[in-house]
């Protein structure tokens, strides 16, 4: 049997073992060197100790998403989960056909669960502040538009500030953005107007019901009106570029950056966003 190491290295190793365990640890016989009973038992014990380590290494080096049978836990911004949840779970199912999934909305105590290692992946808006224990990766950008009913009496003619400032607004709560100090209020105030919030809600369906049956408008993503025959998207009034886009980030614990499950999960989620024609790739 060839060990792949030099005779000198073997000799040095034997000398060190004899120094530690005594001269009878490895004995010289007429046909060469032979291990003592202690040496044999230590070798067997070492193999048993190394077996779990070997299994861990094999799991990392030979990880196959298609064969993974564990549970995958993902937390998603409420707003994004309502938009993308149905299609996202199908993408995950294709990538991990033998896994089970817990796909839940982000809540106020969710960060503790993430830091405890109970969550595999987080999808959240960039506006949400996270501690340094989490590694952040840009996934995509959502482009904002004005949403309202088709043939809107005002927007069908113009969507500049002077024309729309009096219109009632349906507003969606976004995690990480304080609705009492929102961007919309600032945009209106900077132009000498006061935003008229008729509805503030977590429910996209509630906001859609309102704008379908009134002159109210919604500043949001075109996902809201896709394939809806009653709604249309309209151009935003002149606004800063930072308002025109919502950045979507993927996050996971720093100590899982080399984890094969985490990397496969990120790749699957990134593929989902990259393949969506209504989403801009992360710049």
UniProtKB/TrEMBL annotation:
InterPro entries: LysR-type_TF, LysR_HTH_N, LysR_subst-bd, WH-like_DNA-bd_sf, WH_DNA-bd_sf. One of its GO terms (molecular function) is DNA-binding transcription factor activity. It holds the Pfam family LysR_substrate. PROSITE patterns: HTH_LYSR. SUPFAM superfamilies: Periplasmic binding protein-like II (SSF53850), Winged helix' DNA-binding domain (SSF46785). Keywords: DNA-binding, Transcription, Transcription regulation. Signal peptide: none annotated. Gene3D superfamilies: Periplasmic binding protein-like II, Winged helix-like DNA-binding domain superfamily/Winged helix DNA-binding domain. Residues 1-36 form the HTH lysR-type domain. Belongs to the LysR transcriptional regulatory family. This is LysR family transcriptional regulator. It comes from Vibrio superstes NBRC 103154. The lineage of its organism: Bacteria, Pseudomonadati, Pseudomonadota, Gammaproteobacteria, Vibrionales.
């Amino acid at each position: 049997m060839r060990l792949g190491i030099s005779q000198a290295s073997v000799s040095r190793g034997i000398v060190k073992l004899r120094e530690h365990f005594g001269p009878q640890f490895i004995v010289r016989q007429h046909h060469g060197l032979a291990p003592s009973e202690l040496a044999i038992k230590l070798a067997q014990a070492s193999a048993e100790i190394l077996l779990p380590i070997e299994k861990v290494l094999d799991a990392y080096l030979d990880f196959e998403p298609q064969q993974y049978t564990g549970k995958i836990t993902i937390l998603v911004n409420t707003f994004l989960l309502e938009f993308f949840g149905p299609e996202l779970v199908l993408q995950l199912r294709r990538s991990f056909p033998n896994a089970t999934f817990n796909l839940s909305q982000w809540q106020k105590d969710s960060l503790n669960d993430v830091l405890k290692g109970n969550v595999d992946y987080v999808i959240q808006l960039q506006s949400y502040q996270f501690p340094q224990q989490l590694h952040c990766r840009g996934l995509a950008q959502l482009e904002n538009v004005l949403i309202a009913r088709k043939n809107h009496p005002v927007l069908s003619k113009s969507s500049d500030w002077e024309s729309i400032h009096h219109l009632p607004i349906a507003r969606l709560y976004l995690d990480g953005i304080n609705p009492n100090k929102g961007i919309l209020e600032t945009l209106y105030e900077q132009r000498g107007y006061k935003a008229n919030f008729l509805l503030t809600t977590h429910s996209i369906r509630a906001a859609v019901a309102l704008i379908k049956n009134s002159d109210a408008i919604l500043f949001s993503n075109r996902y809201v009106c896709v394939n809806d025959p009653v709604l249309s998207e309209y151009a935003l009034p002149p606004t800063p570029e930072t308002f025109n886009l919502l950045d979507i980030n993927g996050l996971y614990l720093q100590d899982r950056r080399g984890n094969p499950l985490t990397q496969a999960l990120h790749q699957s989620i990134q593929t989902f966003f990259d393949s969506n024609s209504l989403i801009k790739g992360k710049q």
